[in-house]
Amino acid sequence: MKTKNADLKKELKKYFGFSKFKGQQEEIIENLLEGKDIFVLMPTGGGKSLCYQLPALISEGTAIVVSPLIALMKNQVDAVNGLSSREGVAHVLNSSLNKTQTKQVFDDIKAGRTKLLYVAPESLIKEEYMEFLRDVKISFVAIDEAHCISEWGHDFRPEYRNLKTIIDKIADVPVIALTATATPKVQDDIQKTLGMNNALVFKESFNRPNLFYEVRPKVNIDREIVKFINQHKGKSGIVYCLSRRKVEEFAQLLQVNGINALPYHAGLDQKTRVANQDKFLMEDADIIVATIAFGMGIDKPDVRFVIHYDIPKSLESYYQETGRAGRDGGEGICLAFYDPKDIEKLEKFLAQKPVSEREIGLQLLNEVVGYAETSMSRRQYILYYFGEQFDPQNGEGALMCDNSINPPTLRDATKELNIILNLVKDLEEKFRTKDLIAVIAGRENPVTKSYKLEATKHFGIGKNHPENFWKSVIRQATVQNFLQKDIETYGVLKITEKGHARISGKDKTPFLIAEDREYNLAQTKADSDQVQVQQGGGLDQNLYAGLKELRKTVAKQQGIPPYTVFMDPSLEDMTVQYPTTIAEIGKVYGVGEGKAKKFGKQFAEFIAKYVEENDIERTQDMVLKNVANKSSHKVFIIQSTDKKIDLEDIAKAKNLSMDDLLKEMERIVYQGTKLNIDYYIDKISMKILWRNLWISWVKAKVTV
């Protein structure tokens, strides 16, 4: 199982073209190779798949990957096979295969060629498959999208809950379960169901700093979305609608407005659904308009925006759906349109459900309303929901939401918070939000009558404010940890330690909530220049456009999605390095040996021709001894300034003096590459300003 003296970083570079691991990937892989069970909670785009793909590629035998959708398996198999020049490294085993194809899969596994076998849970229980797998070497089992195991998860499937029994029948091997979205309740359920209570748990931050979150009022929505898409022409995007009918109508509206869009929902026949999805993956369509039926099977890394035509039913769904944007670390805009009337429709729909389902649904819906109406950082709100703290001033991605770059006006609601806390306390923490609001508003309902709450001193105490105001106070009190909802009792509000400190008078900090604000739809923040993502200012845009077209051509020849040839960050790096040989292609970011051998020749030839035609002086071709060493820093300097790294740190990293660094930057600019160092100049200016203010203050004190 364990590879002797394995240099994981060397293997990472060989297969994936990365020089270092992200986050906890290396520790996860090391422990899996040592035979330990692993539970991984990592956001979309965080590199979950690499945590099982790399150990599978370097281990003896075949790793079984349990995956929920055929489309997802197909995409991942294409991606893994693209990493190697050998055929059959990854296979799917499901109902889509005929007998000949199934035999080929079995033969490749027996021959030791196949390192990853993707199966659906329904396929794994087939006796013929189980018999075969019992007789071959299995390295480990990976369970992707593990939230499907939990009945609290949003994609519950019964077969997932039997996985522990099935795995035990096949082989005694380590299990790694991975999910991108799981609340603490779901996480606990997954571990119990899989018998992984003793597993090592690796929990990465749910923060996606490259995603920009914005909520707009649902006014002139069709016009606003068409306008937004036209401002991001040629980029891939997803528009989510709650109903199939709206998907069809809006896809047609986009088409008549000259936008290359296709519909996707469960009501379409399978052939049409697959064809539309493939066109989106192959870049033959820019936009997919879809219900939530679309997405889990999509591994496309360059989706640049996700629009919610309708607010989703839960924050978990919202996080999962917006997580499909910017998976490659590039631009990702998450734009949602909100209308309280839509919430009323969803509440009416829930009223028809059984009591327990209704109460859980309403609780989830209230969280979504809180997100839409909050005045706080939307990133902070989402991360709080997943049990994670976030600093809205200094956290990574702190300015990447509308509330952060355009803060609403706040009002002091300390008095109202105290009213709520004392009400919850006096009523012995037995009631939910809607009943507490009924008491404050002086409005009778079955609960107030049953418990004779109209007789309490609190009844009608808040008549001077509308009920929506009190809802906002309670939501913010919950988010700011004065109150918490008891999930087991369907959302009954309890007072936290912080809340008790407020009641006792120990905590006297002001409690602020947002006033209603006017939205200027002509100047929306998702369209503004303030949305900052790490994109190369030093890129050769003409070459980049040509490489994207070449990638599309190569992908069509191979019958695979373009991103499985080379991802956008790899193409961007090519426009900086200008590699003209397969060996140089192999040194590009995100390109391993196998991928360079498989696809590099055409790209190297294309770039070589471009370099010659445009008389470009490559760093690699500069042989004058007095400048060769310095010029080798060109790519590093360009990428570092794009990432807004301090010049002192850049110089230190390359063992340069500041004078040498500035000369090298001057040389880069003379060669035609733009370097934007406004961020550094602004920082220095602020330091000088504060220094002068401090000197003035000292002088004033001395004078006195």
In terms of topology, how is this protein built?
Elements: H1 8-16, H2 25-33, E1 38-41, H3 50-58, E2 62-66, H4 70-81, E3 90-93, H5 99-110, E4 116-119, H6 121-124, H7 127-134, E5 138-143, H8 163-170, E6 175-179, H9 184-193, E7 200-203, E8 211-217, H10 221-231, E9 236-240, H11 244-256, E10 261-264, H12 270-281, E11 287-290, E12 303-308, H13 315-322, E13 332-338, H14 340-350, H15 355-373, H16 378-385, H17 402-405, E14 410-412, H18 414-426, H19 433-441, H20 446-450, H21 467-479, E15 483-486, E16 492-495, H22 497-504, E17 512-514, H23 541-558, H24 568-577, H25 582-585, H26 593-613, H27 625-631, H28 634-642, H29 647-653, H30 658-670, H31 678-703
Parallel strand pairs: 1-6, 1-7, 2-4, 2-5, 3-4, 5-6, 8-13, 9-11, 9-12, 10-11, 12-13
Antiparallel strand pairs: 14-17, 15-16
Helix pairs in contact: 2-3, 14-15, 19-21, 23-24, 23-26
